[in-house]
UniProtKB/TrEMBL annotation:
UniProt key word Isomerase: yes
UniProt keyword annotations, A-Z: Isomerase
Gene3D superfamilies documented for this protein: Diaminopimelate Epimerase, Chain A, domain 1
Name of protein: Phenazine biosynthesis protein PhzF
Pfam families: PhzC-PhzF
GO MF terms, alphabetically ordered: isomerase activity
Protein family membership: Belongs to the PhzF family.
GO cellular component terms listed in the entry, alphabetical order: cytoplasm
Active site: E46
Domain of life, per lineage: Bacteria
């Protein structure tokens, strides 16, 4: 059986870079094993499988080369970028059914945004627990290392921005730590006066590092706002330059009169890269 797989990038910067995802419109049912095999052959951190839904406009399933995940921001943005190019959607509001719930999507002429609920905050982690995963001398002691969830739990790790690119992660140690805390991976970030730069590690799911992560960016925006580290209604996160794929993730927060976050919109630009035909057994 041949399966048509599109490739599109999300969170691109000036129509280059970003994070690639595989996108498959399901014409017939595929098993979990087949979906993982397709994701593995495509070789991207995540691929999206799109079908009809009786609960929303579309149903989205997300697979890494090793397993299924509940939600993936960049694969969602890439998919709607492709669907806009194919004429399957137009600038408007849509909804998608995912394992993380029903997610509202806004299609704009140049950007796609996905709406999410505010992040949940979980345990704080002491710096020595990261000693085998990264060089903890780079950690910024002014801020908390904490597990935060935005569709999937991540460990947010503040580091000194000048040492961010020099980090040499221990993938096995990060995978072990991720399993211990029940998280997808580790989202490491550094702050300058003007920029917020990130790196994301998820070796437990077969993704050592990826160039743009939407759900993690949403979690980080909530973290920065809630902890009064950098209070903004709109954040722009830079990621992926160290991988040769510069990315720009935009996060817009909605807050009430008490300055409590009531909505999170994560989005960015994208472009269509390629199409492949895969033989699936």
């Amino acid at each position: 059986m041949k399966v048509k797989a599109y490739i599109a990038s999300a969170f691109s910067k000036d129509n280059t870079g970003g994070n690639q995802a595989g996108i498959i419109f399901l014409q017939q049912p595929l098993s979990v094993t087949q979906k993982i095999a397709i994701a593995k052959e495509l070789g991207f951190s995540e691929s999206a499988f799109i079908s009809g839904s009786d609960q929303a406009d579309f149903k989205f399933e997300y697979y890494t080369p090793t397993s299924e995940v509940d939600l993936c921001g960049h694969a969602t943005i890439a998919s709607f970028t492709l669907m806009r190019e194919l004429g399957k959607v137009v600038p408007n509001q849509y909804t998608i059914e995912t394992k993380a719930g029903i997610i509202p999507i806004e299609v704009q002429p140049k950007r796609i945004f996905m709406n999410q609920q505010p992040s949940e905050f979980f345990e704080k982690i002491e710096k020595p627990e990261l000693s085998e995963a990264i060089d903890i001398s780079a950690v910024n002691d002014n801020f908390d290392i904490q597990v935060v969830s935005k569709g999937g739990k991540e460990i947010l790790v503040p580091v000194n921005i000048n040492e961010l690119n020099a980090l040499n992660p221990n993938w096995q140690a990060i995978a072990t730590l991720s399993e211990q805390y029940g998280v997808i991976g580790m989202h490491v970030f550094g702050l300058s006066e003007t920029d917020i730069v990130c790196r994301n590690f998820a070796p437990l799911y077969g993704i050592n590092e990826e160039s743009a992560t939407g759900t993690s960016s949403g979690a980080l925006a909530c973290y920065l706002f809630t902890k009064n580290i950098r209070r903004q209604k709109e954040y722009i996160f830079q990621q992926g330059a160290n991988l040769g794929s510069p990315s720009e993730i935009v996060v817009k927060l909605s807050v009430n009169q008490q300055d409590e976050i009531i909505g999170v919109n994560v989005g960015g630009a994208g472009y269509v890269d390629d199409v492949k035909f895969l033989e699936v057994i």
